[in-house]
Amino acid sequence: MTYGAPVLPRNVKIIDQVRAEALRRGIPADDVERWLELARPSAFLTQGGDGPVVGAIRGPLMLPADAQDPEYPLIATIDCAALPADVTDLPLPSDGQLLLFGWPEESGWGEVRYVPAGVAVEEREQYPPGFPPDDEECAEVYTEIGQGDLHLTVDISLPYVKTIPGPPWSPPLPGDPPFEELTEVWKEVLDKAPDGPFSPGGWTTPLLLGGYGTECNGFNPAWLAASDQDGSVRGVDGPPDHGDWVVLAEFHGGRQGGASIHWVIQRADLKERRFDQASVLVYWNP
Predict the structure, then answer these.
(1) DSSP secondary structure string, 269-280?
(2) pTM of the model
(3) Fold of 9-284
(4) How far apart are the C-alpha atoms of 76 and 72, rounded to whole Å?
(5) Nearest in space to 149 (alpha carbons), one of 188, 206, 194
(6) How do the domains of the chain map onto residue ranges?
């Protein structure tokens, strides 16, 4: 079985724990192995740990002189050259800076920008006009999303979302779990991982790159991006399939009550660096 490269001992241990717990619950071994074959490489970035620095939360906003000012605040900057080539199975740029913008509130949105290596940049105003730091609500968000370096942990990802639309509304995406019990096993194992995304300290402004991501209001964020392109539902009068939408990144800042931002894009657009085609979803849980 291939779980993506490199496969670290930590990842093998987690897979073994998932397998053992699933079998203990009486889930058929064939179903367990078929589900584990869906494992994908991903990156888990936190403001702590011993991994290499591959980016930063917030920090200075550096853009080319002819680029428009962003509408939303900068959430994270990723140094693509610092990422191992196989840290995800996405066609990420091999160098340059990936900039993720958004706002983790109910009315939030966002965008993705890419600055190729070697392009001259200048520092821009950190706070967009619509999000002034002297506004009480904005100041609260800025305080909860503290600036700091992002350290890399090479990780794996398995389908997480168990609530997916079924026929006649939509067939599942490739990789969507057909077995609710297995997703419960996966989350239970991650809950116990001391450095995992669901551990007590794991949600300290982490950023997930690649993989399946987590839920967006109970749904797979890639499915939502596919179904929302023309306001219709995939499988009825919308696109016949998901168009290979993938989770580029997912942010879970330290917002009280919980909030997540999902940057989702079609694989072909990512490969061709058409980041303006990305969709940004915000799941706010006050």
Answers:
(1) HHHTT-GGG-EE
(2) 0.83
(3) Hypothetical protein YwqG fold (2.30.320)
(4) 12
(5) 206
(6) 9-284
